[in-house]
Amino acid sequence: xxxxxxxxxxxxxxxxxAAGVGATGVSIPVVAAxxxxxxxxxxxxxxxxxxxxxxxxxxxxxxxxxxxxxxxMTNLGEALRQQPAIGTxxxxxxxxxxxxxxxxxxxxxxxxDRVLILINGRRVASFADALANQAAxxxxxxxxxxxxxxxxxxxxxxxxGSDAITGVVNVILKDDYEGADLSFSTGVTSEGDGETRxxxxxxxxxxxxxxxxxxxxxxxxxxxxxxxxxxxxxxxxSLNATGFNNGSFFSPGGKAFGTTGVFCTxxxxxGGNEIDDVSGTPQGxxxxxxxxxxxxxxxxxxxxxxxxxVENKTISMATFVNYQLSDDVNFFAEAQFAKRETTSHxxxxxGSFGTPDYPDGSVVPATNPNNPIGDAQYFFxxxxxxxxxxxEIESNTVRLVSGIxxxxxxxxxxxxxxxxxxxxxxxxxxxxxxxNSTWNLARFIRISDPDQCSVDALCSATVNLSGAxxxxxPGNWTDAEVAYMRQNTLAISKFQTTSVSGVITGPVMELPAxxxxxxxxxxxxxxxxxxxxxxxxxxGESVANKVFTTEGSFDVEEFFFxxxxxxxxxxxxxxxxxxxxxxxxxxxxxxGEEDVYRFGVNWQVTSDLRLRANxxxxxxxxxxxxxxxGGTVSFDFFTDPCDNVAAGSNxxxxxxxxxxxxxxxQPTSQYAVVSGSNASLTxxxxxxxxxxxxxxxxxxxxxxxxxxxxxxxxxNIITRDTSDSVLDDCYEGPVGKTDPACTQFSGRNTSGIPxxxxxxxxxxxxxxxxxxxxxxxxxxxxxxxxxxxxxVAATYVAENSFxxxxxxxxxRGSIPRIVANFTSDVSWKEWTGGAxxxxxxxxxxxxxxxxxxxxxxxxxxxxxTDLRVSYTFDEKYRVLVGVNNAFDEDPEYVFSSxxxxxxxxxxxxxxxxxxxxxxxxx
Length: 922
Hints:
Number of domains: 2
CATH topology of the largest domain: Maltoporin, Chain A
Shape: globular
CATH class of the largest domain: Mainly Beta
Strand content: 35-45%
Radius of gyration: 30 Å
Largest sheet: 22 strands, antiparallel, barrel
Distance between the termini: 12 Å
CATH superfamily of the largest domain: TonB-dependent receptor, beta-barrel domain
Structural class: mainly beta
């Protein structure tokens, strides 16, 4: 894997020249000037035209496969998330409530839905978690087979169709390798946890008629528990000027509010037995206590059971075959398969304030003989009885591509040097997502009510001799009663993409400045999706998020055209000017036609200076989940406008219509909301532009600089109003609740919580972001035959209208203004070494001004340093030793994320040591 073929080197050089810059932290092989004529014509990401001059106008980051392997991150997606232009959205290995162990990418902080993921220039099927969140999962790609990754930092729908609004991530796998390479890797944190193990083999053979390459990889990642990081535990959940609390109002011991009083027991987590009533003691109910210090567990803390990094086991393989059928035609085929098993842990589902199907929540009637406080609502987290949630996810990915490519004989065409490609794609992701130890709310209500239980044969056969569950005293629950209430969920998903495509490319005429090159082609694609929860979850009986079945499909027929026109050559202040134009028409079966274009100019001012500019339109078609998902019940955060409402206001009058009077206090920060799909959605539409300067001064050999300004405006965006704003619009509107927002819920339950709240996806006005990318790289010869490579890559976000905005951080995400990677590599004889520093600028949290016990108003600047050194011996064996987060920097505190930081942005492992061993077998 550290042995790079000449063809691979040529391709890497071609991409580096097309981009005008190499990615920081990446060593791109360089071909000597006298070898440049050996470079074959290639297709660069963002274009369909084969070129030999490598002057693409698109801003691009190129990352070599070897640098990914050397990063110490065995998961491809996690390694790519370290790039400055990659945002904090999407799934990662710290996503425990959603994500299902997948890793997805968010480019420009506009979400993973708006970046297109490709492998070898073609699409991959989506993975969907138990909540029907859908994204491309990069964990299935064997990192050992990655030749390079090209990140196109610009809209590219004219080339690739839907989803490429913010850009494209194209993973290029090895297709030309001779020999066999075996590698092993392992790593562990300084805390002794989070151990990773990996092994891979890549083997290839070349013959007179073609070649074949095969790669196989296994990866095993141990979990890291939240409780094992001081910064993450206790988990701070409320913060104000006078104090703070950890964890959850819900505790295993529980707290019941009845018509004649309050009842609670001490949780086993605090040494209690969850039997004795402690409400009269000085300590009082756990939810009434306040923290004495940051390390004090004032309330029950869900972080006791939660993972910071999930457990992952992956087996993946990939193969590529190339066979020459004739002098003009070549057959190719590629296949990838991966099996991923993920285990994640969360605390037990909390007791309920209510769900859409059971709006009164966990109620226990006065007729229950074990109830001393009358009709009561019970709030608890049955971790010590029903148990914590353990999710087991199995995901299987299959991807097959085959086709023919070649040159069109001149006798059959009007011009020579024309090439063609015709191919078919089949890619599918099947996943089973099982969670044990959630619980059935309907059965809790039934077994707590002697009248309901007595007429249910299963309940009456299960319940204790009193005829009803001793609901408030979990320590008395029998194994049979727990088994009756426990629910094991299972969600099954299948997402599939099939397509047939063709393209021809070549010259059409000769102009004074050079050849006019064109490409034209078609693609026919079908998307199928299916996500099926278990019957209990779909019926709404579960205390967990209710999920409805998603099932549907659509197809699209597309035609595209591209032309490269050389306008000027060898003129003053214009060594060359090349104009590129692209156009695509898409015809969808569900909403109709969509037209997009792209127009770019590549101006080589002098041999040192190049300018590039692009303007384009792009779009994102609604997905199967967007269109055909039955919906998911989420528990959204609210600031209720009826809470302590001012007398005489519109809010007060409208709240009174729902039975909410003065002095009402919002009972919980989260309300149940059905967030559904919408079959009437239309595509998002975007306008993007970039302008870049690339400077490679001839008087400083080895120095390259680039500066790119980018701007993205997305209209008709597929989203939903914040549920908070729906309530605000309703109650702040005209007296009589006549605002249209009031139709999205039916009223209030006895606790004052909105009922039948529906907040479906809609097309809204839009979002905008803009900023600057800066790259610098300097390669030079040092002392005693050493070679040095210094670099910086940085992204500055000037504006982003997604919450919390540019430079903002809160529990919904973070958008730092500046993310930068600084790198230094040195090679000397058989030795190589490197130091890498990641910088994240300080951020502001608009909700806080520092008037709290932590002095919290946002985050400070963050630095993380990685170090590594390697030695190659006998020209066949290589050992690399590295440490990531060498100074063990804790992530910055972000309130209230559930684990005290933004785990999608900062390193959560801490100091992590790793070693890899590579061997060329032959």
